[in-house]
Write a structure and sequence with these properties.
Blueprint: H1 2-38, E1 51-57, E2 60-67, E3 71-81, E4 89-90, E5 94-96, E6 100-107, E7 112-124
Antiparallel strand pairs: 1-2, 2-6, 3-4, 3-5, 3-7
Length: 125
């Protein structure tokens, strides 16, 4: 009879320990679920913009921009020349329609310092 009481005491202590460890987890999960239910999610923005790849060869710069999205993207190539006396250049902006690829090019007299492309999404079709 004594072993049954001991076993019951051990099972009771183990149950209390498990309940004590599981309670904070349950409260945390319930709090997150309640907070998410009362706050609506922000509307997801539609993806837009072209993906551009630039390459520099000597003093020449070339960029290819492809627009896989249904909105028009206006891209512009910017070239910064390494030499202080070499004039930095901004190519004229070009509209990239849906599913289109454009080629932008520019050059410096000597070395190219940096190149980047800026985007301005026009709106969806």
């Amino acid at each position: 009879m004594r072993s049954t009481r001991r076993r019951t005491g051990i099972l009771l202590a183990a149950s209390i320990a498990v309940a004590g460890l599981a309670a904070p987890v349950g409260i945390s999960v319930a709090g997150r679920a309640g907070a998410g239910a009362s706050t609506p999610d922000a509307p997801a923005s539609d993806p837009a913009g072209s993906e551009c790849r630039t390459s520099v060869r000597g003093s020449s710069v070339v960029a290819y921009c492809h627009n896989p999205y249904p909105s028009t993207d206006r891209v512009q190539l910017h070239t910064e020349c390494r030499r202080w006396w070499d004039i930095d250049a901004d190519a004229p902006p070009v509209d990239v329609g849906p599913g289109r690829t454009v080629r932008l090019d520019d050059r410096c007299w000597k070395e190219v310092g940096s190149v980047w492309v800026t985007h301005r999404v026009q709106g969806s079709v």
